[in-house]
Amino acid sequence: MFEYRIIKLPDLSFFQQIYREWIQRGFHGEMSYLEKTAEWRFKLPEFTKSILMARLFYDDIEVVESSKDRIILAKYAVREDYHQTLKDMISRVVNNLETRWKSLQFKIFVDSSPHPEKPMGYFSGFGFFGLSSVLIDPYYGSYFNLGGAFLSLDLGENYPVLNDNFCAKCN
Question: How much is the pTM?
Answer without folding.
Answer: 0.87
